[in-house]
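[Meeting: bench + compute handoff]

Bench side (C.D.) handed over the final construct sequence. Compute side (W.E.) agreed to return the predicted structure before the next meeting so the bench team could plan truncations. Sequence as handed over:
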Amino acid sequence: MQAATVSRRAERRAATRDAIVAGTLSLVAEGGYGAAAMHDVARRAGVATGSLYRHFPSKGELLARVFEEAAGHELALVDDIAGDASRPPVERLAAALETFARRALAAPRLAYALMAEPVDPAVEAARLENKRAYQRVFAQLLDEAVAAGETPALDTGLAAAAIIGAFQEALIGPLSRAHTPPAADSVVAGLVTFTLNAVGAQHGHDPS
């Protein structure tokens, strides 16, 4: 009986924590981190403001968890594409980059918050770790591309870091404006082509 009671309490606590994260994420997607005032988070999550701090000791910790949730989902999608060994490495590289850019441009406010909005140090630490994770994904793809003869020999770790830095930096401008789909298509095609050319890829991928 006691174990069941503890289990139910743990489930309720986890459900409340999930509601807080989901509520905060919805606010960030609408208006960036600045829109995630704690009283608004509490209202969105359906909890008392004071109870937020029982789950997250600081706003920075909450926002870092929200970043990890949102950015981790995007990383997982890219990682799935990168890991599809049924496709040539350069094709996977192009597809992963296209997916990253299209999803960012489809949710510009959230993407800008994840990539560039000034943040609490806890969020910035999570952001840096997320970039390192992307770099590992793309370095692995480039290793495979070099081994397959699809790109010339290169420092794949350095190239992967350059890809992530340049790709995100190039998206910041478009993300700060409300792009129409044709403009988004142009941005995606330009970014993917630039990246493949930069690594000397033999490619015929046409983002559309």
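W.E. noted at the follow-up: DSSP finds nine helices and no strands in the chain. C.D. will use this when planning the next construct.
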